[in-house]
Design a protein that fits this description.
- It contains eleven helices and 17 strands.
- The radius of gyration is 30 Å and the shape is elongated.
- It binds S-adenosylmethionine.
- The site of S-adenosylmethionine has 20 residues, from α5.
Length: 398
């Protein structure tokens, strides 16, 4: 096996078979063999687009990389990083790089190039990077995916390593003309499509400075942006029961639903579980010193006030009167009154979703949706259509 690492992956293959990916499976690729890259490491950087020694080639890659990576300092995972040429450009642009390669000699060179920089390198399989719970803003992969045994599985794994809003930057191609190897941009777009919110292909063949020569085969970068994960505020509500009655608070001076009756409630804060949030809110609003054992979950509801409000997850906890002491109005600037009301004869001047939650509890529901439509009022309106939908479902055998 040659120890030279040619610029074009096509020339890293023996003459036959022409296209092992299509004809014989990945096991036929010499590049699938870790020893191949270990042997290639010493001269890998001799090729212009590997070593980036020519200032013009280096500047061309630096400019492209700058446009592909986030403008703010980001966590970049460079998989199959080789001798670390792109990792070094990324680090020079202010990013923190973690490089992974199966070849210890490649990694040794990468460590040397990035010595003293904010970078870490691991000898490991790029298809299963051992990065634990760490998440990255960018997974950067140049000329590696095409030679992996299962590119689709690797892409799924890599997408899972991205932080919300992160991106895959995949520099790939279909090299050689008579007997090309690699992944055409269309094929990679189809593979990445189901994982991404948006994909963009930038063709790179027409820019000879990147390669240190004219090329006519297919070379490109595919940038896949992942969807930002949806997040919701979690709110907690106390249904304090005294026989047939529940305690309601009349909102005042809060800017939301003022004048209406509502269960004592608030938002869970970062790092709090919902029970801790309920205990804290009950103490802050009505002076109760509840313990975890005082609380049971009555109902969970995803609710959304009229547009443009965002949806929330509401937990309704029940507790019995007497637990934690005597309730009193600790926040008179936000609450005009506390009063007991019969659960089977609730007043109309209530926040609509809270009323739906209490009605749902009385009817034995555990899970509800309450999704306002445009034009709905925040206040309960007995003449308006109910927006409550039970998600309890039928129980097997029930
Ligand atoms: C063509 S070189 C590209 C190096 C680098 N990405 C660059 O663009 O300069 C391919 C690199 O992928 C590495 N590689 C191939 N298969 C790998 C795998 N399964 N896990 C980790 N590294 C792998 C090789 O050791 C080699 O360093």
């Amino acid at each position: 096996m040659s120890t030279d690492a040619p610029a074009d992956p096509a020339s890293q293959l023996p003459a036959e078979p022409a296209n092992p990916r299509a004809d014989q499976g990945e096991s036929a690729l010499p590049t699938a063999d870790a020893a191949y890259w270990e042997a290639a490491a010493a001269s890998f950087d001799d090729e212009p687009d590997h070593g980036l020694r020519d200032p013009a080639v280096r500047a061309a890659w630096a400019a492209r990389l700058r446009s592909w990576l986030p403008s703010a300092p980001a966590a970049v995972l460079d998989l199959g990083c080789g001798t670390g040429s792109l990792a070094l450009l990324a680090a020079e642009q202010g990013h923190r790089v973690t490089g992974v390669d199966r070849s210890p000699r490649m990694i040794a060179q990468a460590r040397g190039k990035l010595a003293g920089r904010d970078a870490a390198f691991l000898v490991a399989d790029a298809a299963e990077p051992p990065v634990g719970e760490q998440r990255f803003d960018v997974v950067l992969v140049r000329h590696v995916l095409w030679a992996l045994p299962d590119p689709a599985a690797a892409l799924r794994r890599w997408a899972g390593l991205l932080a919300p809003g992160g991106r895959l930057v995949l520099v790939e191609g279909r090299w050689g003309e008579a007997e090309p190897v690699g992944i055409p941009a269309g094929e990679l777009t189809d593979l990445v499509g189901p994982l991404a919110a948006r994909t963009r292909v930038e063709h790179l063949s027409h820019d000879p400075v990147l390669w240190g020569k004219e090329v006519t085969d297919e070379r490109y970068v595919l940038i896949a942006e992942l969807p930002r994960r949806h997040t919701e505020v979690v709110d907690v509500h106390l249904v304090l029961r005294r026989g047939e009655e529940v305690l309601l608070a009349r909102r005042s001076g809060t800017g939301y639903a003022d004048g209406l009756l509502h269960a004592p409630s608030g938002h869970a804060e970062d790092g709090e579980d919902v029970r801790e949030a309920m205990i804290r809110e009950a103490a802050e609003e009505i002076g109760l010193r509840l313990t975890p054992g005082d609380l049971r979950v009555g109902l969970v509801m995803q609710h959304c006030a009229p547009p443009p409000a965002r949806p929330r997850i509401g937990w309704f906890f029940e507790a019995e009167y007497g637990a934690g002491g005597e309730p009193w109005n600790r926040e008179p600037d936000k609450c005009a009154e506390l009063a007991w009301h019969r659960l089977d004869a609730l007043p109309d001047d209530m926040v609509a979703y809270c009323r739906a939650g209490l009605d749902g509890l009385r009817a034995g529901h555990r899970f509800l949706l309450h999704w306002h439509r445009p034009g709905d009022a925040v206040a309960h309106d007995p003449s308006a259509p109910s927006r409550a939908v039970s998600l309890d479902g039928a129980r097997p055998g029930g």
